[in-house]
Specification:
The chain is globular. Helix 10 packs antiparallel against helix 11. The chain contains 14 helices and four strands. By secondary structure, it is mainly alpha-helical. The chain has a domain of about 160 residues: Orthogonal Bundle (Hypothetical protein af1432). The longest helix is centred in the middle third of the chain and has 19 residues. The N and C termini lie far apart (about 50 Å).
C-alpha cells in the first residue's frame, strides 16, 4: 500500500525536543527518512536545513494527530517573552502555512478542527499583544509567492485589522481568520497555475478563475465543522466596490465588517503578489487604483497596520 504524506513547516519544529513522529525530506521525487520517532531535532540540523532553503518537511499521514498535538504545545510558546518577537512570528507564520496546506485534512475530524481553532486563537492573541508581532509576521512571510503564503498572510492581516478596529468579538475574529485561511481553496480546482496574475489570464482562464469563490464554498459545504458564516466569507471574498467584484457583483459597502475586511486584505495582498511589491511599496499604487472601492475607515486603519 502506497504511503501518504502530510506536509509540515520547518519553523514549527522545536530544537532539542523529541519528535513523536518520523520526519522525511522530499528529494528527487522520493521521500527520504530524515529523523526517527522520539529522536531530538538538533538545532544544528535545523539551521543546516534552513541554510539550504528547506522550508517544508513531511510526516506520514497516519501521524497527523501526533503532529497536531506537538504543534499545540509549540504554539503556546507564542506568549513566551524569552523568545524574540521575530522567532515567535516565524513560528506563527509557519503554523498558519501548515494549516493552509493541510486545510482539507484538518477539517475532516474534530481533533483537526479543534487544533486549528486553538492555533488561530493563540495567533490572534499574539497579534494583539503589541504592535511588533504583525510586522514581524509579515517580514517573516515576505511577498506572497504562492497561494499558501497568500492565504496565511491574508489571515494574519485580517485578524490584525479586526483587532485594531475593535468592533468584532474574539470568536468573530477567529472565524474571520479561519475563512481567510480557506478563502482560496477553490483554486485547487483550476486547471492552470493559480498564481498566474489576472492580467495574464486568457478569457477562458479568467472565466474559470471567477468561479473559484463558489467552488471553494462548495468544497467546504460538506465539512461538519465549517460554519455558514465561514462559507459566506469564502464565497464573497472577491467582491469589492459597488458591484465590481465576483461572483455575484455585490456592493461591498452593504456587507458586514468581516466581509469587508477579507475583501480589502485579499485584494491588497493579491495586488502585491501580482506585481511583486512589498506591502509598504504597494500602498500608494493600490489605493490610487481602488480609492472608492473600500470603506475609508477600514483603509486608514489598515494603512496604520502596514506602516
Amino acid at each position: 500500500m502506497k504511503k501518504e504524506f502530510y506536509s509540515i513547516r520547518i519553523n514549527t519544529l522545536r530544537a532539542h525536543d523529541p519528535v513523536p513522529f518520523d520526519i522525511f525530506l522530499y528529494i528527487a521525487s522520493r521521500y527520504l527518512h530524515y529523523t526517527r520517532i522520539n529522536d531530538e531535532m538538533e538545532e544544528s540540523r535545523l539551521k543546516n536545513l534552513k541554510s539550504k532553503g528547506v522550508k517544508k518537511l513531511f510526516i506520514e499521514s497516519q501521524d497527523e494527530d501526533r503532529y497536531l498535538k506537538y504543534l499545540e504545545t509549540g504554539i503556546n510558546s507564542l506568549s513566551d517573552t524569552r523568545m524574540t518577537v521575530e522567532d515567535r512570528a516565524s513560528l506563527a507564520n509557519d503554523t498558519m502555512l501548515s494549516s493552509v496546506e493541510n486545510a482539507e485534512k484538518n477539517l475532516e475530524t474534530e481533533v483537526g478542527y479543534n487544533s486549528q481553532k486553538n492555533q488561530l486563537e493563540k495567533i490572534s492573541e499574539f497579534i494583539g499583544s503589541e504592535r511588533g508581532p504583525i510586522k514581524s509576521m509579515i517580514a517573516a512571510a515576505g511577498i506572497s509567492i504562492d497561494n499558501s503564503q497568500h492565504s496565511a498572510t491574508v489571515s494574519s492581516l485580517c485578524m490584525a485589522l479586526a483587532k485594531k478596529l475593535g468592533t468584532l468579538d474574539s470568536n468573530a475574529i477567529v472565524e474571520l481568520g479561519f475563512a481567510a485561511l480557506l478563502h482560496d481553496i477553490g483554486k485547487t480546482k483550476l486547471n492552470f497555475d493559480a498564481n498566474l496574475p489576472v492580467s495574464k489570464m486568457t478569457p477562458a482562464q479568467l472565466k474559470q478563475y471567477k468561479n473559484h469563490p463558489a467552488d471553494g464554498a462548495e468544497m467546504l459545504a460538506g465539512k461538519p465543522f465549517v460554519s455558514p458564516r465561514i462559507l459566506g466569507l469564502v464565497v464573497s471574498h472577491e467582491e469589492y466596490g459597488h458591484g465590481k467584484g465576483f461572483p455575484e457583483k455585490k456592493n461591498v459597502f452593504g456587507l458586514d465588517t468581516s466581509y469587508q475586511i477579507l475583501s480589502l486584505v485579499n485584494s491588497f495582498d493579491r495586488f502585491c503578489q501580482d506585481n511583486s511589491l512589498t506591502h509598504s511599496a504597494a500602498i500608494d499604487p493600490f489605493f490610487s487604483k481602488h480609492d472608492e472601492d473600500f470603506d475609508q475607515t477600514l483603509v486608514s486603519t489598515f494603512v496604520t497596520i502596514l506602516t
